[in-house]
Amino acid sequence: MTEEPASGLRFRWKAMGCIWELTLCPDQPDAPALAEAAFEQVSLAERLLSVFLPSSDISRINREGQSGPVRVSPLTLRALAHAFQLSEMTGGAFDIACGALVRLWGFEGGEGRKPVEDEITQALKCTGRHNVLMDEAAVTVRLVRSGVRLNPGGYGKGFGLDLAMEALRAAGVHSALMHAGTSSVAALGVDCTGRPWQVGIRIPGQNEGHAAVLELQDGSLSVSGISEQSFSDEGRRFGHVLDPRTGWPVEREGWAVALCESAAASDALATAALVLGPEGTERILKGRGEARVIFYDERGRPIREVGGGPEPGGSRTESHVSE
Amino acid sequence: MSRNNLFSREYLTRRDFLKGSAAAAASVAVFGAQRAQAEEPAQKSLEEPIRAGIIGTGAQGTFLLSNAVKVPGVEIVACCDIYEPHLEKSLILAPDAEPYQDYRRLLDRKDIQAVIIATPLHLHAQMSIDAMDAGKHVFCEKMMAYSIEQAKAMARKQRETGKVLQLGHQRRVNSTYRHAYRMLNVDKVCGRVTQVRAQWHRNGSWRRAVPDKSLEKQLNWRLYREYSQGLMAELGSHQIDAVNWFLNALPVSVMASGGIDYWKDGRTVYDNISVIYEYPGGIRCTYTCITTNEHEAYYEMYMGDEGTLVVTPEKGLLFREPKAEQLVWAPMAHKDESKGKEAIVLDAGATRRAREGTGQEEIRTDASQDDYYVELEEFFQSVRTGKKPASDPESALQSCVTCLMANNAAQTGRKIQFNEKMFQI
Ligand SMILES: NC(=O)c1ccc[n+]([C@@H]2O[C@H](COP(=O)([O-])OP(=O)(O)OC[C@H]3O[C@@H](n4cnc5c(N)ncnc54)[C@H](O)[C@@H]3O)[C@@H](O)[C@H]2O)c1
With b meaning 16 or more CB within 10 Å and e meaning fewer, what string describes A121-136? Predict the structure, then answer.
């Protein structure tokens, strides 16, 4: 996914293992300072949630959470509560308490490998939000059994975007676009010409042009797909998106684009949508007017759009296939 | 819908978000029961919690606060800031704290034993002294104070009251720094140190966004001389503190040159400065701090006749000079023949990896805790035990004097000789 080239001021930052970019309008006063403030929030999100920083709250929970309650930042507790509510809503199709599976399948920074059935059964016992206990009063988190690991992969970048957008909005910014490693993007207001921000979705393997251009206004968009980062075993191809309910990678090919106000939520929803497929996703979004998901096949052709009920909420989209 | 709207950003700001969370509520019940069984003895042995407050909840205050709330046995019961948006943000991180706009009202509270101060430089001394007078232990951000006299007054107040006064030079607790210190001074991996080069290079205006022109000086205090001592205080003091520490010495003279040469935006502190310190025994330290190029960002480099040690909070690197002998104490030394150079793998409680074929060694120590967490944990430990913290008033005064004299040298264009009296409390 990339943004369309827009005439704006661009700021770049490296965090959570990817490049972040913020676009502000050329006439935005104090633009560099605002960019710094936004990235400070991203850095806060990373310090709280990254599994690659040994000092983050998540790493500490994963390391020490089985032996007792781990004190965390109240902001971490908010993020976890939000993520777990999203798991509940998606019937477990999205679940950050899936680190044991991610590790088992070698997706924690590794190449990927196919485990044996027994190992999957074992890891499944350590998967799911019921393995995580939060004490709101003491601001602690505890894991109920050893082997449980949190992996906020499908949530953390969105969380960083949410914090950054909230900071920009509080500073009086009316127009901004920020993306995290091109997998999630969040918009404040409209672009510098007064139109909704244009976000291009590029499908890997299709280098020319974009598969679709979506419009975004006061909302977020996340892309999840399978054709990148996959490995083969005896003719079967396994993608890096795991179904936390079965312990197996999703074999469906293609892409899901989720849209709603919160980037953390769109991040989670895009993952859940791949797991659930169009019908399942439509079911969970019923009656929740805010969010929508567009499905694309592996060649980038739109298949179906679900959700986005009578109250479209913050985000507005229009899609078309472009060359 | 009465339930939380999961698709909006309200989960970040809504006061009752957690309360509305079925996930949290359900777990609390289970958790409560388990804890009562399993941990009763541990609960009893817990000492009385330390009640603490924070003054100044801007950028750094927020980072400190997010760590302070994690230190076991500590309750953050009060937050103070004169700027409403910052005060509000702090209450998300410390939801049970009482908000204050006047720090003296916070200091009036008899139940508060300790305060964290993260306000602009010119306020450090007054606030720390008032806090110690009110019987509080103090963690105050670096640089110690705006002037040498103020820093000395703080140190004297600490001696008079016997309270803990810790300064925010977190490199003093950083595990890589502690390890590198031992390698340089005990293992003498560089042989005889003859030169030091250090820098903090950034590429940016160093400005904060200002929602309203009238707030310019309040929010961008670090750009104006009446509140700030500029780059040497804000960035240099961390590194100069480390150099004094690593060399076990104080400089004998300083020359410097600086200016406002790029960011001509009304600021009154330098946007770049170059400094030469002379330490005893002819060791020279060159230090530069600039805002127009970030190549190689920040480090301190110790150069000796047998090796070079480059230190940053994230990692340390050792390069042995070609003529230097192999380090006999290296427990697991091995040769990498590929380029005819020697790569040394060392392991002494830290993970150190050789970069293959480069004759270069990497130090990575236990990074399982954020330095800000470690320094605050140390602070509250000192409050309990009376033990002196690593960043104590004496060393902080020394780095404060070392930095302010560089500014002075740049402003007057003179070479300045240090004398003992300057560093005396
Ligand atoms: N150790 C480190 O790595 C590190 C990093 C950054 C900053 N700092 C230090 O932290 C301190 C604060 O820096 P910052 O970047 O957070 O600045 P900041 O401007 O973001 O925060 C300072 C806060 O103090 C508040 N304040 C000002 N006057 C006050 C008063 N009279 N009473 C109560 N609150 C008041 C301001 O409103 C602001 O919220 C400085 O001394 C700085 O050198 C240390």
Answer: eebbebbbbbbbbbbb
Asked, for residue B375, whether it belongs to a domain, the answer is no
Beta carbons within 8 Å of B181's beta carbon, 6+ residues apart: B245, B246
207-236 in A: which are within 8 Å (CB) of B?
none
Reported ipTM: 0.84
Which structure tokens are listed for B120?
């602009």
pTM exceeds 0.90: no
More confident residue, A107 or B84: B84
C-alpha A232, offset from chain centre: 25
Domain that holds residue B288: 173-361+392-417
Select A2-44+155-321's CATH number: 3.10.520.10, 3.40.50.720, 3.40.190.80, 3.40.50.11290.
3.10.520.10
**Of B30, B70, B94, Cβ closest to residue A72:** B70
Summary mean pLDDT of chain A = 85
Which residues partner with B307 through β-bridges?
A: B320
CATH number of residue B100's parent domain: 3.40.50.720
Q: Give average pLDDT by consecutive 10-residue segment, chain B, 425 residues.
A: 72 75 41 36 58 97 92 94 93 91 97 98 98 98 98 97 97 89 89 97 91 92 98 98 97 98 96 98 97 94 92 83 63 34 34 43 63 94 93 97 98 96 94
- Interior CA angle at A148 toward A144 and A151, to 5°? 130
Tell me how far the alpha carbon of residue B352 lies from the centroid of ligand 1, in angstroms.
36
Per CATH, which fold does A64-143 belong to?
T-fold (1.10.3980)
Report the candidate in B399, B415, B398 with the shortest Cα–Cα distance to residue B276: B415
Atom of ligand 1 nearest to the CA of B57: 39
